[in-house]
Amino acid sequence: MLKVMGIFNISFTEGFILVGFSDWPQLEFILFIYILIFYSLTLFGNTTIIILSRLDLRLRTPMYFFLCHLSFLDLCYTTSTVPQLLINLQGHDQTISYAGCVAQLFIVLALGSIESMLLVVMAFDRYAAVCRPLHYTTIMHPRLCLSLAIASWLGGLVNSLIQTGLMMAKPLCGHHLNHFFCEMPVFLKLACEDTGGTEAKMFVARAVILVFPAALILGSYARIGRAVLRIKSTAGRRKAFGTCGSHLVVVSLFYGSAIYTYLQPKGSYSENEGKFVALFYTIITPMLNPLIYTLRNKDVKGALWKVLGRGRDSG
Question: N or C, which terminus of the chain has less Cβ within 10 Å?
Answer without folding.
Answer: C
